[in-house]
Write a structure and sequence with these properties.
Elements: H1 2-24, H2 30-53, H3 64-79, E1 124-127, E2 130-139, H4 141-151, E3 156-157, H5 163-177, E4 182-187, E5 196-197, E6 222-225, E7 233-236, E8 242-248
Parallel strand pairs: 4-8
Antiparallel strand pairs: 1-2, 2-8, 3-8, 4-5, 4-6, 6-7
Length: 253
């Protein structure tokens, strides 16, 4: 009789423990594990009470081992920082793909280089490192200035910076075109007798005037090359129609 009770007790305990372990492998939460342990503990105590009533001894470790293992697993789950309330081991970390290297910065485009002075075209010449265009059509001062902007990129009436350049340009024009009385970009429209460059309104630093010039007073406020030798200046009517000389800083000189 005692053996039969013991066999039944061991079988029930084993089934419960196995069942609990199978449930654990289904990824129970912490609370569900605790409920399983409490249920097994209650059954263990009830079986021990019945065994004690019939005078049977419980072999050491036959019933308690399975429950202790469950308790140990639950304790590990409680203190495992990687645990997600499951008695199963934490899943392996997801590998992080290596970060692609940052693309190299796109270099800034190089500024467009202007073309050279088109001296192969009629009336274009290079003098003293400047690209010039001799306009044989006749315009008044304002129209001549506007025309220079049309025949050359960034074009304007020629503005000599010193007497040497002034004389060289005039002699070249005379030699190539037989030119005289040519408009350049200087005037005293704003203040009588104070000659300035058209493009900047800055004072002209020299004055290679022909003898007796300027003599036009308020009536003649625009400067032209005169037919009096090497590049002498005259003040002349701004409304008169004359040839002109243009320059441009656009070209790669």
């Amino acid at each position: 009789m005692i053996k039969l009770v013991f066999v039944l007790f061991a079988a029930v305990a084993s089934i419960n423990v196995i069942h609990a372990m199978d449930i654990g492998s289904a990824c129970l939460t912490r609370e569900e594990v605790k409920q399983v342990i409490r249920s097994l503990q209650y059954e263990k105590e009830e079986m021990e009470s019945k065994m004690a009533q019939c005078g049977c001894n419980i072999p050491d470790g036959r019933v308690t081992n399975g429950i202790d293992e469950m308790e140990t697993a639950e304790t590990v789950a409680n203190f495992n920082p990687d645990s997600t309330n499951s008695i199963l081991p934490a899943s392996a970390p997801v590998p992080i793909a290596p970060r692609a290297p940052a693309p190299a910065p796109t270099p800034a485009p190089e500024p467009e280089q202007p073309e050279g002075c088109p001296v192969d075209k009629p009336n274009y010449i290079m003098v003293n490192g400047k690209c010039l265009f001799y306009e044989q059509k006749r315009f008044d001062h304002s129209a001549a200035q506007e025309n220079c902007g049309g025949v050359m990129p960034n074009g304007k009436l020629f503005e000599p910076t010193d007497e040497a350049e002034n004389d060289l340009v005039y002699k070249t024009l005379q030699f190539m075109f037989g030119a005289s009385y040519i408009r350049i970009g200087i005037n005293d429209k704003s203040s009588e007798g104070n000659f300035t460059y058209d493009s900047s309104a800055e004072a002209v630093p020299m004055g290679p005037w022909v003898n007796g010039q300027p003599d036009g007073g308020l009536a003649q406020n625009c400067v032209v090359y005169g037919n009096y030798g090497a590049g002498g200046w005259l003040d002349y009517f701004c409304t008169g129609r004359l040839t002109s000389i243009c320059e441009s800083t656009h070209y790669n000189l």
